[in-house]
Amino acid sequence: MKRFLSVNDIGPLDKAVAEALEIKRDRFAYQHLGRNRTLMMIFFNSSLRTRLSTQKAAMNLGMNVIVLDVNQGAWKLETERGVIMDGDKAEHLLEAIPVMGCYCDLIGVRSFAGLKDKAEDYEERIIEQFIKYSGRPVFSMEAATCHPLQAFADLITIEEYKTKERPKVVMTWAPHPRALPQAVPNSFAEWMNAAGYDFVITHPHGYELDPKFTGNARIEYDQDKALAGADFVYAKNWSAYADPNYGKILSTDRSWTVDTAKMALTDNAYFMHCLPVRRNMIVTDDVIESPRSIVIPEAANREISAQTVIKRMLEAL
Ligand code: AN0
Ligand code: CP
Fold first, then answer.
1. I need a surface site. Which of 7, 116, 124, 300 has the fewest CB within 10 A?
2. Cα–Cα distance between 81 and 76 in angstroms, integer?
3. Using CA atoms, how far apart are residues 108 and 65, in angstroms rounded to an integer?
4. b/e per residue, 102-135, with b = 16+ CB within 10 A?
5. Pairing of strands 64-69, 270-272
6. Model's pTM, two decimal places?
7. Span 273-302, average pLDDT
8. 130: closest CA among 102, 105, 108, 103?
9. Strand partners, 293
């Protein structure tokens, strides 16, 4: 694998999940693959899980790891070509990227959507430049429009916990005080569609996602109806995608918060969230602390999804 930006880069999902579960049973079996190889992880935005799980995954494979927080200690980077650089940005991405490529074998990039210019975000300008100019295989650690390592971990988790061949999975929008990207729901939708589950998305009017990702998923504007009979509830906030409100918050309606009454509508569903989560905005304390909450095993599987992807990239070097 030379790049990992979306579900389209991973091949058949049943094979990927089988490989992930094999890695989970013996995560040190492929230590030789990463010997004398270096992963560079580049963060334009904050992270807890992605940083720790991806670093751990690379170490499981015997790799060395370098982490760069671009906004803490590195030169401020200009990203637009043609700009007269007389401001506060001391270096251009067009030099920084090939330089970073000199010091490593693989690159992971986290670069969130700016949520101002939809075309710029949906062209994935930053990570595409890493692919073009680094000379190295590149994987997304959440880019502007997708978070495939998260969706892969979510898929592994559902496969581990499901008791039906084709479970009902409901992704519900929930309120949040800050405008968040659509990357997590976009990826979750495209991976759930690819997995062939009974997949339903529920959100207030105006929060429709890009149909490129939602595909044939059922959209239900009544959250209670959507939750009826669910086997998995996946909560997430996102900002509006549709014009003219791209990147805006249209609602903070706390009647969408996932609470015990909402979970009672389901078929004793498991509760999932990618984390970090704001309690009593997205989900109540009771639900996230309940025995049906699987947010911690879900986060644990981030190590496994990352290791599967890095392993495949090492095999293709
Ligand atoms: C980010 C988001 O919603 O994309 C990262 C989630 C993994 N969340 C926040 O910024 C709170
Ligand atoms: N779920 C996730 O990607 O978390 P971080 O933002 O902490 O990496």
1. 116
2. 15
3. 11
4. eebbbbbbbbbbebeebeebbebbbbebbbebbe
5. unpaired
6. 0.98
7. 98
8. 108
9. 271
Q: Give residue 148's region: left, alpha or beta (phi > 0; psi -120 to 50).
A: alpha
Tokens 């009544």, residue located:
222
Q: Which residues line ligand 1 (CB under 6 A)?
A: 142, 180-181, 183-184, 274, 276
Backbone angles phi, psi at 140, to 5 degrees: -85, 135
- Closest by Cα among 193, 234, 199 to 212: 193
Exposure string (b/e) for 184-198, b if CB count within 10 Å is 16 or more? bbbbbbbbbbbbebb
The domains found in the chain, sorted by start residue, are 3-146+302-315 (3.40.50.1370), 150-299 (3.40.50.1370)
Ligand nearest to the CA of 180: 1
Q: How confident is residue 118, by pLDDT bands cut at 50, 70 and 90?
A: very high
Cα–Cα distance for residue pair 48/177, rounded to 1 Å: 20
pLDDT digits (tens, 9 = 90+) for 226-283: 999 999 999 999 999 999 999 999 999 999 999 999 999 999 999 999 999 999 999 9
124: left (phi over 0), alpha (psi -120 to 50) or beta: left
**Ligand 1 centre distance from Cα of residue 180 (Å):** 6
Which of the ligands is closest to the CA of residue 306?
Answer: 2
